[in-house]
């Protein structure tokens, strides 16, 4: 996963979320089709894709998809 | 799938095609093809597909595809259980089923099990997902094994009481599970004596849970020790701590897989026959090239021969429980017969198979003919082959056949075969154990038929005897099995579990009649059932079932005539019966009209027929019938 576009593809093709670039910065409660289960699925998926453990507490407390992406790609 | 090109693509990369369908917004429309897209998918691909499929609205899918069987699954339990829904969705989809999920509130299992008006009581399958925290959430610190014992006893005692209440009035099957013991608890006890004691206490608690399945025939308890023992992680500590998801995603996926098997059985789609390739599957090497002495098979200490022998023993074990075995092999028949009859290394013998087909024709043609000869749907077959080409071709030509590809590593054959619980059933019946002999008799009957010029003469010589008896407790398991497994001669596809059959036996307004049959070749046992109830002066046939083994011998007409005669003799003015059309029961569409019934209503799927009992049909002359008790024959 090298870019926010890869992240969007993952959200769409692996989680089935109908998201666009406009949704990544919005609050999670405004992401179409989003609920807390997606968060769990997304975190598991990111760990599988990146091969690294996410800081789970921060990820669970993230306010937007963009913040989650930043956590996933942070070195 | 639409179009041949789509079908060809999916054999190569089904899961990728599924993602494409999702992107194009076509998953709802193409749902019936999803089953095939998922055949052979890896665990990771199934996980991904589950996420996509779980986003679909089951109502929309059901509306667009009324023929897809819907299974309502209600989920309750202790922790966060929403993550179970994607794996459940995909596991049902793999079997051609549609999940209608009903998820209870967090940690609401006590309430849900006690609420007769809730979703749990109406579901086909009610899942109460238990986890170790059911106990450890209540254990104080510091704790010892005795604290765990006390809490476990209380929790399971409460559960046992709730289960007893549940099975009294719920309609479906309740699924519980054993509690795996994560190391993080055992390791908190520093002395080995206490640790051993914890092991005892914990296993006793699980044994109590497992016994609930012995006490109630509508309760299934999944034992999670086997998957945990194979290395499926029990807990993901972060998810458990932060999100109250106390079973790991991998264990939930394994759990969902088992639920898929139960749902398949519940929907009447259990598999009945295991069809095996020979070269590379049942033995190593190629018989045609290596000769009978060159193939690898036997318990004589050679590595590959031993692995194939071990596989044959597992196949034999399945066959002993009613799974029909057949072999379909690209070989000349003579050497195959020679090996099956006389090779010292073989565990399976010719007699273990209902039929051995060795020729050079395409395997899917052989499978189709075999299904016809056995009077089974080809989709009740499980096909095992080591050739990716043969597996792909059968999958493509016969999408309903469950294909189990095995590799060139025979030590892995057993796991491949058992992975999907193809033949899982809640319990075995006497008929299961004798099934292989019954089907062999059936093939002898067919040969016997071929020796006659006329069907009538054949039937006369067959000396069919039919008995219609009031069913009792001894018939419950078999009648439920017929109701769950019979697809072709099943007038309404009303699926009944053992408890539902038992409830009908106890209902004074209902009658459950078991059809027994025998002929010159042997006793067929209980081959059918008629479920009726009486309201006023009308007898209603709620369902009529007959095993596909014994169609078209006059047994069905004989039983129906007896029911009509009995109704009239007991003052009824009419007999009503329903036919609900399914893709599989077209053969019996005209059964009622052919026997003097007239249609009364037709809502597009269900036709209600009525017989006025003025002129009763005449039962076939070749059948010797024993009257139902209480029938005065007038």
Automatic annotation (TrEMBL), chain B:
<dbReference type="GO" id="GO:0016747">
    <property type="term" value="F:acyltransferase activity, transferring groups other than amino-acyl groups"/>
</dbReference>
<dbReference type="InterPro" id="IPR010033">
    <property type="entry name" value="HAD_SF_ppase_IIIC"/>
</dbReference>
<protein>
    <submittedName>
        <fullName>HAD-IIIC family phosphatase</fullName>
    </submittedName>
</protein>
<dbReference type="InterPro" id="IPR010037">
    <property type="entry name" value="FkbH_domain"/>
</dbReference>
<dbReference type="InterPro" id="IPR000182">
    <property type="entry name" value="GNAT_dom"/>
</dbReference>
<feature type="domain" description="N-acetyltransferase">
    <location>
        <begin position="466"/>
        <end position="619"/>
    </location>
</feature>
<dbReference type="InterPro" id="IPR023214">
    <property type="entry name" value="HAD_sf"/>
</dbReference>
<dbReference type="InterPro" id="IPR036412">
    <property type="entry name" value="HAD-like_sf"/>
</dbReference>
<dbReference type="InterPro" id="IPR016181">
    <property type="entry name" value="Acyl_CoA_acyltransferase"/>
</dbReference>
<dbReference type="InterPro" id="IPR036514">
    <property type="entry name" value="SGNH_hydro_sf"/>
</dbReference>
